[in-house]
Backbone:
């Protein structure tokens, strides 16, 4: 009985180590993606603010239209990029 318990404990230990390794890798990826998304959002906000302010100095109504189109295009680009990233991650999930 003792031999079976020790084999079972060894198997459980190896599974636990594997899960810990995978969680560490996943956590590192999530942190990296969070930092990347925050930096991209900040860059987008600053870019739109600069363009909007620049256009506001020269035109009266056009900046509102152009600013809305710019923000809409940026949001759609972000959504399409996120979908593509998830799709690539999903397709390559079994190959790691």
Residues:
């Amino acid at each position: 009985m003792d031999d079976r318990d020790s084999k079972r404990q060894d198997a459980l230990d190896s599974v636990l180590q594997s899960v810990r390794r995978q969680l560490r890798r996943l956590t590192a990826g999530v942190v990296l993606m969070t930092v990347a998304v925050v930096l991209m959002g900040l860059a987008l906000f600053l870019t739109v603010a600069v363009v909007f302010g620049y256009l506001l100095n020269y035109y009266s109504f056009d900046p509102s239209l152009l600013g809305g189109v710019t923000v809409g295009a940026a949001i759609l680009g972000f959504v399409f990029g996120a979908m593509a990233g998830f799709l690539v991650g999903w397709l390559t999930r079994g190959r790691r």
